[in-house]
Amino acid sequence: MSGRKLKAALMLLGLLVSPLLSAAESGEDLYKIYCWQCHGMQGDGMGINIPDMSVQPRNHTDSKDMSARADEDLFKAIKGGGQAIDKSVLMPPWGEVLSDDEIQSLVRYLRELCKCG
Amino acid sequence: MHLKPAGLMGVVIAFTAMLFAAAAFGDTGEKILTSRCVECHELKGPGPASLAELRALKGPNLSYAGNKYKQAWLAQWLKAPTRIRPAGMYYGNHIKPGEEHDVVDEAGLITHVALGDADAKAVAAALMQHKAKSELLTPGVYQPGTISLSMGEMIFDKFRGCLACHQIEPGYGGVSGPEIYTVGSRLQEDYIISFIQNPQAWSPLTFMPRRTLKDKDLQKLVHYFRALAKEKFE
């Protein structure tokens, strides 16, 4: 392989790997940025935005309620928003903002919050 | 870089000429930006590269201010700044648990410095020259039109859920995002459309969700923002 080809191959490899590297934010850190605003800093559904909401955000610390939901359903709700699971439009879709890996990290963090994993 | 003496002289002459040109144009606005605003605002650069950087933001990225704000609004606001994001740049830094729900912790919120009339005008003019990310805009994409406030609110709240994070009048709506009732006078219409289509392209990692909206609905939302901006809220 010539020097130029090797360099091009390395650059291509870098491009392929970099999105994976940038997805290294933890589920907890993602939750603090994207979810706290409605689900609250304690994950209990009591965020700063709720006073004028027509539907209250889910309480992620409710073990009974959360254990009734499969990981796949939580994933679907985060990715496609409330409408994807016939729930409120107030829960927006995050699939264009977060990668599937990041959404999986959030699902794992939800299981920590509800202590029902 | 190796420059021949003649080349070096050329660079020195060009640099000196630039300095004189800047002085001749009385570029006080840019000087204020680079001396007083840069501590809290990014003037160049694309924005945060990690959530840690996002959390540390103190003010909006001004590298694309000329594509975002209306100059008249800037000149006015800089003289008497008000808080546009009720919970600050990243709300998570300014909240605490309350009795019924989390509440804004006013103590840590920054009050924006006020400028005199001449400086405010100069800074507003200088900001209009900051036009990063122009490639995201489609100039003229917004076509002025009208919508009733009730229909606008229907789209904004019931159909799209935007009210969850944004206030449509003082004290009504969510507080993690910027107020909506001044958007019509504050932001350029083509920018609003581009931003809603892809918030993260303008403001990397922002906690504004990205929804897929039809062009017709985007236009209607901007009609609504313009109608709201004409309301006189006490």
Description:
The complex is a heterodimer of chains A (117) and B (234). Chain A is mainly alpha-helical. Chain A has helices at residues 3-22, 27-34, 36-39, 63-67, 71-80, 100-114. Chain A has six helices and no strands. The longest helix of chain A is centred in the N-terminal third of the chain and has 20 residues, at 3-22. Chain A is globular and about 60 Å long. Chain B has 234 residues and is mainly alpha-helical. Chain B has two domains: 26-132, Sandwich (Immunoglobulin-like); 136-234, Orthogonal Bundle (Cytochrome Bc1 Complex, Chain D, domain 2), CATH 1.10.760. Chain B is built from eleven helices and four strands; from the N terminus they run H-H-H-H-H-E-E-H-H-E-E-H-H-H-H. In chain B, the strands form two sheets. A two-stranded antiparallel ribbon of chain B has the order 1-2. A two-stranded antiparallel ribbon of chain B has the order 3-4. In chain B, a hairpin with a 2-residue loop joins strand 3 and strand 4. The longest helix of chain B has 20 residues, at 5-24. The chains are: A mainly alpha (117), B mainly alpha (234). Chain A binds chain B through residues 22, 25, 29-30, 32-34, 36-38, 40-42, 46-53, 81-82, 88-94, 96-97, and chain B through 49-51, 54-55, 87, 90-92, 95-97, 100-104, 158-161, 163-165, 172-176, 200, 205, 207, 209-212.
